[in-house]
Amino acid sequence: MPLILQCLCRPLQCTLFFSSSSSIISPRRLGRVWSRSLSHATAPSFSKVPSPPGLQNGGHTKSQGWVMGSKNMLKSTSFSIPLAPSSHGRLCHTHRLLFSVHSSKPISRDQPFSLKTNGFSSMSHANAPSPVYWEGPAKNRVDSVELEILKKKLENLGMDSNICKPGQYNHLLCPICKGGDSEEKTLSLFVAEDGGSALWVCFRAKCGWKGSTTAFADGRSLSGLNKITKVKNIREITVENLKLEPLRDELVAYFSERLISRETLEKNRVMQKRSGDQIAIAFTYWRNNMLVNCKYRDVKKNFWQETDCEKIFYGLDDIQGKSEIIIVEGEMDKLAMEEAGFCNCVSVPDGAPPSVSGKELPPEEKDTKYQYLWNCKEYLQKASRIILATDGDLPGQALAEELARRLGRERCWRVTWPKKNEVDHFKDANEVLMYLGADVLKEVIENAELYPIRGLFNFRNYFDEIDAYYHRAHGSEFGLPTGWRSLNELYNVVPGELTIVTGVPNSGKSEWIDALLCNLNESTGWKFALCSMENKVREHARKLLEKHIKKPFFNASYGGSAERMTVEEFENGKQWLSDTFYLIRCEDDSLPSIQWVLDLAKAAVLRHGVRGLVIDPYNEIDHQRSANQTETEYVSQMLTKVKRFAQHHSCHVWFVAHPRQLHQWVGGPPNMYDISGSAHFINKCDNGIVIHRNRDPEAGPIDRVQVCVRKVRNKVAGTIGDAFLCYNRVTGEFMDIDEPSGNVRIVQTTYKKKRKNSG
User: Fold this and answer.
1) Is the model's pLDDT at 528 over the cut of 60?
2) CA atoms of 305 and 185, how far apart (whole Å)
């Protein structure tokens, strides 16, 4: 028998290469191969081939012809035979074996038969061609030393490097998440063609482990390996090659307990797979009557799928050409929907994510988790109404949101599962079918609501708020009274509104607002944030304390004969200041921006329960704007920010704005349109008030303050008109005209005497 045929007919444990000259070349380890008998192999023809890389310079080069010698002929250290490159991805495709109905663990797990080789695929010995060495550019040759070092690093990380092939994507069990309950091979590992570097990522949603490594420190092989995609060679499957068979009676009974009939099972071609006495339910995925994928489940809800199969919806053919479809989260829910009469239903193949992604939607080719959507997009394009009937738990809600983001919220509806008790709801369609019946499940689907779109609402979304408004449940629907009878008919403080206050200088705008805040605190307990840049802190504290205690802060000429507040009153007043007011002040030289003020006010609302904000005045705020933006445009945007803050935090805002210079002013109150900057101050505010004080004793009492209400957007809270208050210069209080006050008369008399003496 020829030498080569003797080698092929022996158990092939190790092989040495030698040249046609009698010199023996030192063995080069190229991989490991399992013991395997080749006694039935057909002897292939052998031809002269180039010398293997690495032996051209180190061995005998006179003859390039090579044959193989067996272990019995040449006694030497064992090493393996190199196999030729193959177009086959694997020797045989293996997948997760079946689970017993009574066991949640697989009875066995066969590993694919593959070799640890230098870039060559494993293959059947019966079809083994001649050993051929690929000879290409030096940069693409696999360096066995580098590859061995790289594989050792991968093994230390927990990866099975025996089945890793350079230049290809390898699918492994992730050492971090172990493939979850289904133990699916979700780790995609790419080894560079030269065997010097590797990059990997786990595509399981709850894991996402990724990284890279190199054989040597220079990292030269990582160039171009900056990302990895999940690449699969789609495998064709049939019922026959998967060895599927009709459901046995025990499994039919299991479905019957969940109120799913044999007829529904047969229509959806639900089958089983057997391995010895172990069986599993097989949900077959079909498209155009062709089997595309198969998903398995045991009775303990352990799931696994065929690998390297295309991901599509379960029940895809049932929605072909349909304008209304239902999407559920599991195959059992799809079957339950059919029991309720809905055949236009599909199920996602992979379950739900733990939460909604905060990232932007990836391109179609990179949207790996939801690739089944893009694989079925022609089935979804005609659907104008898509009901998302996912599970009611948080992952189910996250799945509904992710589907709606991709399908378009405008054509999506969502279901609300009925209550199971006072606290919990039913989880999914199959649970509703089991406990409440098909009629209730049908009613739930028919009552699906429009999927919410951010910024688009229906009055139904606000019925609770409207009901509370009608019944005046909060007590502030008409606004809070100001504390002055003459003004309450015109103006009341409504939470969430913006009031613009203006008036000529020294007319008492800030004093009136301080008095209003004291009244509101006394009647309702409101707290306030003060951004008052014109006031020193100590001066502002004095004004507020005088209004609160109703006594002058000092024994000074402005107080006349009024008694000064005592030390005890002063200390109590300091506690009141601390409990009621929070100061927003810019301590450096720069002016604060409106956004800076609103951010601090938001913190005061959330931290201290502030219900009112005072910004006094407008011209103390930094109003830098772009060169192409007018002041009118800037004021409009600024007031929009202030109004949104007020509405979102139910906080009333008083904004003080000075009028522009009045060249022909004759002493009357200014108009709201006289405010410096823009007419938007009156256009965009909810309330517009002008504070005006008489300065001419001949025209009337100089302690009289005119409160001109020039705009009230909410007619429930007030109307346009003028109210007159009496100002007490000693304490800074404002009182109704008919309210007796000895201090007022004293101040008025004293002031008139000073005027006469100065005249």
Assistant:
1) yes
2) 10
